[in-house]
Design a protein that fits this description.
The protein is an alpha/beta fold. Among the domains are: about 1-90, Winged helix-like DNA-binding domain superfamily/Winged helix DNA-binding domain (Arc Repressor Mutant, subunit A, Orthogonal Bundle), CATH 1.10.10; about 160-260, D-Maltodextrin-Binding Protein, domain 2, CATH 3.40.190. The chain is built from 13 helices and 11 strands. A hairpin with a 2-residue loop joins strand 1 and strand 2.
Amino acid sequence: MKRGLDWRDLQYFLAVARGGSLSVAGRQLGVDHATVGRHIQSLEQAMDASLFERHLRGYAMTRQGERLLAAVEGMDKEAGRITETSEGGLSGTVRISALEGFANFFLAPRIGLLLANNPGLTVEMETIQQIVSLARRHADIAITLTPPSSNRFAGEELGEYNLFIYASPDYLVRHAPIRTREDLAEHMFAGYVDELLFTRELDYQGAMGIPARAVRIQNSSILAQMEATCSGLCLAVLPAFVAATRPHLVRILPDTMTLRRTYWLVTRADERGTRRIHHLCALLRREVEKERALFLGET
């Protein structure tokens, strides 16, 4: 180590480690990417070590970077606890990794409940959801469809949600009636691109027995699938709470063609008891329980 470390450099390092690129870190810190780059270079020179590997898609930490991250995050959390104690509210940044449907149609409208009494707190939402986000410390909380498989993580059931097949009234007027499960084979569906599924729990059509050849509109967005359905182009299997935002959609064979999935609330085990994480997890549990009927499609 050539000289003492500058805390400002460490803050920039933490932002890049969490954001994965200079531009994302710059937006978070309110500076341009060149400024971020200078601080990273300064830190690497001070430590006489390479902390990141530069790729086309962004910055990936080296082993030395990962070791430093563990130490810097500890410092950041301690600074946050001191601020919370002195100011009385939560502070710092909490990043939530969640499925698009949950993040966009449920969580986003309720974030204000947490921010209202915590002016020093920032909440980030990542909708490209993978458990690796927690493993690499890119997120603090993950909303997943499966429980954690490692004791490094703490998981609990957050709540169940039901899915149904939906169509627009216009679609039903223009196509043959759907009276039985067998009739569905003659209709076109929108669904996820199979190769992009990071969990089979998202293969809603497959779980319902809908043939793969019927899923002719494939994308990576539940919103895109719903909008294709709203346009009268096709059918789609949608979470009830998502479809509730388009009340004109009609459920197809709701008594027999239904599917239930479970959301899991996952955090890193060593951070479960921190004030910020505890507070946010409590809010999520409370809001999901309050809207249980919405998630189950009983409203």
